[in-house]
Write a structure and sequence with these properties.
With about 230 residues, this protein is mainly alpha-helical. Helix content is about 70%, strand content about 0%.
Length: about 230
């Protein structure tokens, strides 16, 4: 069921991006909601679990996740936090680099799911919520004349299968390592959500719409947190 949800979230986002890709404001609105959701999941679920075990130097892995994401963005050019790229800009984005960056990003997210016992945990829900706007932007970028090329299908397929592959590979790891991967992904989530939320607004004025969308994401995450059985 976890694998099905992971794949479905990507395909849903790509489908929406294919047909509604010109609606950038819609996609960016989804991203802001997902950012509010992710940062709340980090603070209420991921980090408490990471630090509760008393593992020494676990914070280094969180920082490592932030640095890993910064490096990946040199390949993805900011797809994860809503940087739209149109075909006129396509020469600046190498498809294989985009494919590698998104694959690593999604693969790492899937590893901490390996020993998860409950479906739709807050952590999994955070991945699903974040996958949809990323896939929307990916679908909007890859589609040409309402069609996908063979290369586009390859990129979409690899992105859709990356987290499930991490999920299955994680089952072969020592369970004691799970907390370190969770810390790494927590750093990735923290960086992405922070960039989306705290990107400078025009003239540095308060963007009430953005604030409302962040609050919506926070409320949704808090609902998931309060209803999740610990």
């Amino acid at each position: 069921m976890i694998v099905i949800l992971l794949i479905f979230s990507v395909l849903l986002g790509v489908f929406l991006g294919k047909f509604f890709g010109e609606k950038e404001k819609f996609a960016k609105g989804l991203l802001v909601v997902s950012a509010g959701f992710l940062i709340t999941i980090c603070l209420n679920e991921v980090f408490p679990e990471v630090y509760s075990g008393g593992h020494s130097n676990i914070g280094i892995w969180v920082i490592g996740g932030v640095l890993v994401q910064m490096l990946l963005e040199n390949l993805t050019k900011g797809f994860e936090h809503g940087h739209f790229h149109h075909h006129s800009e396509g020469k600046n984005i190498i498809p294989i680099a985009l494919m590698i960056g998104l694959f690593i990003h999604a693969f790492l997210e899937g590893i901490p799911l390996a020993n998860q016992e409950t479906v739709l945990s807050p952590y999994l829900t955070g991945i699903l919520v974040h996958n949809i706007p990323i896939s929307f932007i990916l679908g909007a970028f890859l589609v040409k004349n309402k069609k996908f090329s063979a290369t586009s299908f390859l990129i979409i397929s690899l992105f859709a299968l990356a987290s499930p592959m991490g999920f299955f590979l994680g089952k072969y790891f020592n369970p004691d390592l799970e907390v370190y991967f969770l810390a790494l992904v927590g750093g990735i989530f923290l960086h992405i959500s922070s960039v989306i939320i705290f990107e400078s607004n025009k003239h540095h004025n308060v963007d009430w719409k953005k604030l409302g969308l962040v609050m919506l994401g926070v409320l949704l995450a808090m609902t998931s947190h309060l209803t999740h059985s610990h």
